[in-house]
Design brief:
The chain has 686 residues and is α+β, with helices and mostly antiparallel strands. Helix content is 66%, strand content 7%.
């Protein structure tokens, strides 16, 4: 029997066929046409010839096909991995299957998959019963209990610390290091888990059925904000803590920390285009769960390895060979670098999925709601960016001062804090996203790319569809994804955003090092960042009102030019006056004042990428944008190494100013072309 050969199985009768709506179709037959075919091994197995070297198990898939001439619809139910599907159906077994209907695909599991049913099983309509289908209520209760236990244990260790002094090493050290980590995580997750119950009480079950109606986005968006806050906080703590903890090990050189950051950026540059294709080709909740799980595994592994490195560095008997590394330390460091790259890619996958895809579906792609949701998400990012590094710095530094400059206890405190925070955040994030996903049908469906070719390949003789045809969003190569990005109508708008990363006037490492070299007070630099964050938050309050009056595209035009004009005096002072007290404060003032325009443009460009990108390409396009701006960021760091003499900082300033003006000009070109053609078509009409 050949692959995809029609089986002599009678048509499985149904009372009526309703496709995805559950209603009857007057011109339809009473059942699906049944086909059975063998499935080829995965592509990578065939590529390396493993199917010929080993007896690869044959798998069977079943297609239940319904095509209606009357209403011009096609519904294909696909069941994989079931050799005896008839027996499974007859025995009442729940069967996981995938639907292809109306230009979308979705997957679910229930009995009698061959009978007419919609997205949520047999019958018509969907009502969320408020019981937390994703298990968020149970997860929140469990995390709340764990947080209270952690808080109680931390309080006990703090009050009864003397009882551990006589115990063998390292029990006293671990007890001292665990106190602040337990207390902070206990308080933080009592608040986070309590937020879930507060949201449930505020909206109530009746309001949950209404989904995302209303200007505030409803309970689902509130839950997404809680999940996003946890993710953003742990990400900001992680980015700050790892380099600081490395300095506890490599105390005489910055090279290991710089190498870690460089490899991480390069990994993102080369891996994100493929990761973007994975976002487009995967079901949302499955991808989110896997990304969160893999990211947390990387974090736990890195925490363990950092603990081993700190312990070995404190051991006075070890002597390194290259950069203070012996064989064991080199292995630890290499593993941390690999885990850092994988973890950062997973973090970017989750960020793009939530900020560029989930929130668009949640807002039903309506301008007002989407704008307000983007603003709230950006405010969460800004607050986490400001507060998280400061807090982890307090635990790494101030705790060490309390213990008489005990660097070992301070480092272990940071490691325990990171590990415990992520351990408690993991289940809460997963189940919060699960509840959001289960309550919104739009999140459960993925649009089919190249629908006509997909159905042709799906139903043709010869098994699986060929690469390059049909809905193979996840099979895009690196070059195919980059070509899609460079030829898409959002490219110029995205490129202008990426060019803003080609600057040293960004509160980053280079400008901070230069101002410290100029003997600017460190306290003043910290105050400058704090005031800049407040000004940036002000920009998020102004943006929604401007977008409502002018449209987000025009707000982007005005804000990017405003940002460039605000930065120009600081850059001009550097170029005309050179290193001087006047140019120093002019640069600081420019970076503070410009934050409002910068974050307003960030919001405008984000909405461009949401509104103008097709659903089946959002992941690839936004992932390429991440690769692009990470590339430019690496380039400016290379320029910083070339012009490493602080006296030559004006050269870096000139390069930065040129790219700021260029970014403004590129966005102006995009805006002009868009208006000249009468505006691009909105994706929500597709």
């Amino acid at each position: 029997m050949s692959a995809a050969e029609e089986e002599g199985v009678p048509i499985l009768e149904t009372a009526s066929h309703g496709g995805s709506s559950g209603g009857s179709c007057p011109g339809s037959p009473s059942g699906f046409r049944h086909r059975r075919r063998s499935v080829d091994p995965p592509g990578f197995i065939r590529t390396f010839g493993l199917d010929r070297l080993y007896s690869w198990p044959k798998k069977t898939e079943h297609l239940f096909i319904h095509e209606c001439e009357h209403c011009k619809t096609r519904d294909v139910v696909r069941i994989r991995g079931k050799d005896q599907v008839d027996h499974a159906i007859a025995s009442g077994e729940e069967v996981e299957h995938e639907h292809y209907v109306g230009g979308y695909r979705y997957r679910h599991k229930h009995k009698d998959p061959h009978e007419a049913h919609d997205l949520h099983g047999k019958g018509h309509g969907y009502h969320y019963d408020g019981k937390g289908r994703g298990g968020a209520k149970v997860a929140a209760a469990a995390v709340l209990c764990a947080s209270l236990v952690a808080l109680a244990l931390g309080t006990y260790l703090a009050l009864g610390g003397k009882t551990f002094e006589g115990m063998p090493y390292p029990v006293p050290l671990l007890a001292r290091a665990a106190v602040p980590a337990l207390v902070f995580c206990g308080l933080a997750f009592a608040l986070a888990s309590g937020s879930y119950f507060a949201i449930a009480a505020f909206y109530g079950d009746g309001h949950r059925r209404d989904g995302v109606e209303g200007r505030d986005g409803g309970p689902h968006f509130a839950l997404m904000c809680v999940s996003h806050a946890l993710s953003a906080w742990e990400d900001r703590m992680w980015q700050f803590a790892v380099p600081v903890l490395m300095m506890r090990v490599f105390r005489d050189t910055l090279l290991p920390g710089a190498l870690f950051a460089l490899v991480q950026y390069l990994g993102v540059v080369f891996l994100m285009p493929k990761a973007g294709a994975l976002i487009d080709g995967s079901y949302r909740i499955r991808l989110a769960r896997h990304a969160i799980a893999l990211e947390n595994v990387c974090i736990f592994g890195t925490c363990a390895l950092l603990g081993l490195m700190v312990h070995r560095a404190e051991d006075k008997g070890w002597k390194g060979k290259v950069l203070g590394l012996d064989g064991a330390m080199a292995a630890y460091y290499s593993a941390i670098v690999v885990l850092g790259v994988v973890g950062e890619v997973c973090n970017q996958i989750l960020t793009i999925s939530l900020e560029q895809d989930w929130v668009v579906v949640l807002a039903k792609e309506t301008g007002r709601d989407l704008t307000r949701m983007n603003v709230n998400m950006k405010r969460i990012d800004l607050l986490c960016k400001v507060l998280a590094p400061g807090l982890i710095g307090v635990f790494l530094d101030f705790f060490g001062l309390l213990r008489g400059q005990d660097a070992m206890a301070s480092a272990l405190c940071g490691i325990l804090l990171l590990g415990l925070f992520n351990a408690l955040a993991w289940p809460l994030e997963v189940f919060l996203l699960g509840e959001i996903h289960d309550g919104l049908p739009g999140l459960q469906m993925k649009r089919i790319r190249n629908e006509a070719a997909f159905y042709e390949d799906l139903l043709r003789e010869g098994g699986e569809a060929e690469k390059g045809k049909g809905d193979h969003s996840g099979d895009r190569s690196f070059l195919e994804t980059v070509k899609l990005y460079c030829t898409h109508r959002v490219f110029l708008a995205s490129l202008s955003f990426c060019m803003l990363f080609m600057t040293v006037m960004d509160n980053g490492t280079l400008v901070t090092s230069y101002l410290v070299w100029r003997q600017v007070n460190v306290g003043a630099l910290g105050l400058q960042r704090g005031v800049g964050a407040v000004v940036g938050l002000a920009g998020t309050f102004v943006y929604p009102k401007l977008a409502e009056r002018m449209g987000y595209e025009k707000v982007g035009l005005w804000s990017i030019w405003a940002f460039t004009l605000c930065m120009a005096p600081g850059a001009a002072a550097q170029l005309l006056l050179g290193p001087s007290r006047t140019s120093d404060w002019a640069l600081i003032a420019a970076m503070v004042v410009s934050r409002a325009a910068l974050w307003a443009f960030d919001l405008a460009e984000r909405q461009v990428m949401q509104e103008e990108c097709e659903e089946e390409s959002r992941g690839a396009l936004n992932a390429c944008q991440v690769s692009c701006y990470q590339t430019l960021y690496c380039v400016i760091q290379v320029f910083g190494m070339v012009f490493s003499n602080p006296a030559n900082f004006s050269v870096l300033t000139a390069i930065s100013l040129g790219f700021l003006v260029g970014a403004s000009a590129v966005y102006t070109m995009w805006y002009t072309n868009k208006n000249r053609r009468g505006g691009y078509s909105r994706i929500d009409s597709q």
